[in-house]
Amino acid sequence: MPSRVSIEHKTPFIRCVNYKACSSGVELSAHIHQPIMATSTRQNYIEKVAIVGAGGQMGTFITEALLKTGKHHLTAITRADSTSKIPAGVEVKKVDYEDPASLIEALRGQDALIITMSVMSPPGQSAKLIEAAAAANVPWVLPNEYGGDPTEKKMGEDAMIGPGKQADRDLIEKLGKSSWVGISCSFWYEYSLGAGPFAYGFDFENRSVTFIDDGTTKINTTTWSQTALAVARLLSLKVLPDDASDKSATLSQFRNKPAYVSSFLLSQKDMLESVLRVTGTKESDWKIEHEAHEVRFAAGVAQFKGGDRRGFGKLLYTRAFYPDGCGNYEARHGLHNDILGLPKEDLDEFTRIAVDRAARKVLVL
């Protein structure tokens, strides 16, 4: 099973569609010119980065990771009435989502836009940002991805979030001014383990766990810090190769593609073993139940339709644990961890964080 993925180095080319700028061209016809290479060191890196949701849970981690590189000027895009606390060292620009001009002005001059928003955010909000980024000629957009494998269309449709994410990617490509990179990180481990029974099935207060099927289906899962570091490392890559002989990783190699990252490949039984080590308990101390994936998924759908948001979480998580391997993108695509220089993490360290979050009832839905 692959532990990393190799990116074939394909040198980007430029097409000319204006005959006045092309002595041998024909008006409105496309011509291949010399490969695009870096014209200067300064122009070959992402410097100015705008981030939506900089004060949110994932956004805070990403902002701090980018600040630590010392390579970027960060701008937080926030609503005028936002009370989110923005980390020091970040410029703040207030916007009105009902006024496209304010969004365009806030994004003008940016090299990249990072969108981090809740799945419960108002519909159409990300599209407004993408359209503004195109109007402001922002070359790179990291859309509100942060999920599973975008090539698993059926899983995305069943989980209700796939079509919206696909629409964002399609819009970026249709507008033609920006390129996207999707961060495929699956569920955030320390949140999901400690969030409640609807997620990874653990109820720490009552010391019980519900295994989906037999609890042995493995999925990829990533910590907040690893996801944030992946974003920072990605945006710290050179945009283009220095010359034709440069085979180092570049941002352009991820153009309109997912970046697959992961902290751990785990089953629910693997998680329980870590929980037992961290809590000093035995398996006999826990109540272990089993639920068929189809039954649990259907229950989540019914619960959500009945107005209980936990039902959405239940159906979302359950769908990733289907035995078809849809939640294990590492097996299909490998990972970009090595290319981005991501560290190996200690599972029990982050299990301990999850246990603590559960004890303090942090973000339990």
TrEMBL record:
<dbReference type="Pfam" id="PF05368">
    <property type="entry name" value="NmrA"/>
</dbReference>
<protein>
    <submittedName>
        <fullName>Putative oxidoreductase CipA</fullName>
    </submittedName>
</protein>
<dbReference type="InterPro" id="IPR008030">
    <property type="entry name" value="NmrA-like"/>
</dbReference>
<dbReference type="InterPro" id="IPR045312">
    <property type="entry name" value="PCBER-like"/>
</dbReference>
<keyword id="KW-0521">NADP</keyword>
<dbReference type="GO" id="GO:0016491">
    <property type="term" value="F:oxidoreductase activity"/>
</dbReference>
<dbReference type="InterPro" id="IPR036291">
    <property type="entry name" value="NAD(P)-bd_dom_sf"/>
</dbReference>
<dbReference type="InterPro" id="IPR051609">
    <property type="entry name" value="NmrA/Isoflavone_reductase-like"/>
</dbReference>
<feature type="domain" description="NmrA-like">
    <location>
        <begin position="48"/>
        <end position="178"/>
    </location>
</feature>
<keyword id="KW-0560">Oxidoreductase</keyword>
